Amino acid sequence: MLTPRLLSISAALVVLGAVTAHLRLVPPLVGFLVAVGAGGLASLSALPVSVWEWRRRRGPVGWVLVASGVGLGAAVFVTAMPRHPRINDVTTSPEDPPSFVRRPGGNPDYPAQNASIQRAAYPDLAPVDLPQAPDEALAAVRRAVESLGLGVEDADPATGRLEATAESRVFRFVDDVVVRIRPQGSGSRVDIRSKSRDGKGDLGKNAARIRALAAALAP
Questions:
Q1: Between the CA atoms of 77, 197, 181 and 132, what dihedral angle is there, to the nearest 10 degrees?
Q2: What pLDDT was estimated at residue 2?
Q3: How far apart are CA 116 and CA 135, in angstroms?
Q4: Which residues of 150-163 are buried (b: 16+ CB within 10 A; e: fewer)?
Q5: Are 173 and 32 in contact (CB under 8 A)?
Q6: Of 135, 143, 194, 199, which is most buried by a Cβ count within 10 Å?
Q7: Which residues have CB under 8 Å from 29's CB, separation 6+?
Q8: What's domain 89-217's architecture?
């Protein structure tokens, strides 16, 4: 029967996509698309395999568990997609977003159409006001960024700018983060921007990162 073989091949491709991307043998997006496509095939073949094995009385419980696991994983991924807009560049200041200086490749400009989309999807994102002067605020920002596991790429006290990167664990997708610090009264105003290098959507990861950083900075 073709279905068990298809399930086995699909499962192997899921692992292959993840491993080759993790080892940087292929670009992250390529590995991800291979794994997602194979996962879709596995989802379609898992239930027929379970029924087939049940009838043959050869380890039905194992196949049922495989089918349930694959189906649950696919369902979680598919249902998560509609909850988030297809944007991958998010900021606390859509009208005046911080600019990247060191970000490699791609267009560093914030897409104008993202402003209305992110306001509707992430209305809670806002600048963070700190009581410290800008130089002290920059030090606080660096500590917060490092506490979240981000790698600092550049910090410029003269312009109040810090750039960092975040890398996903499995496929090694890279997101770029820039933080801008400006004087405000006796303290500082901090704006954050997080942008993915690949894809068109981010499943809300960039907004979540901004929230986490803002929470880490909260006085």
A1: 50
A2: 46
A3: 32
A4: beebebeeeebbbb
A5: yes
A6: 194
A7: 173, 198, 199
A8: 2-Layer Sandwich (3.30)
* Residue reference for tokens 């890279």: 174
pLDDT score, position 55: 59
Q: Look at the alpha carbons of 36, 21, 49, 79 in this order and tell me if their dihedral is positive or negative.
A: negative
Tell the burial category of 9 from Cβ atoms under 10 Å away from its Cβ (0-12, 13-18, 19+). Answer: middle
Per-residue confidence band for 1, with pLDDT thresholds at 50, 70 and 90 = very low
Instruction: Look up residue 30 and give its two tokens.
Output: 């390529």
Give the phi and the psi of residue 217 in degrees, each rounded to 5: -90, -15
Does pLDDT of 88 surpass 70? yes
Strands 161-167 and 174-184, sheet pairing: antiparallel
Q: Which of 2-11, 131-140, 162-171 has the highest mean pLDDT?
A: 131-140
DSSP string computed for 10-33:
HHHHHHHHHHHHHTTSS-HHHHHH
The more confidently predicted of residues 143 and 218 is 143
What does the mean pLDDT of the chain come to?
83
What is the rounded distance in angstroms from the CA atom of residue 151 to the CA atom of residue 129? 23
Place of tokens 């550049």: 154
Summarised one tens digit per residue, pLDDT across range 38-51 is 776 666 666 565 55
- E-assigned strand segments in the chain: 89-91, 128-130, 151-156, 161-167, 174-184, 187-196
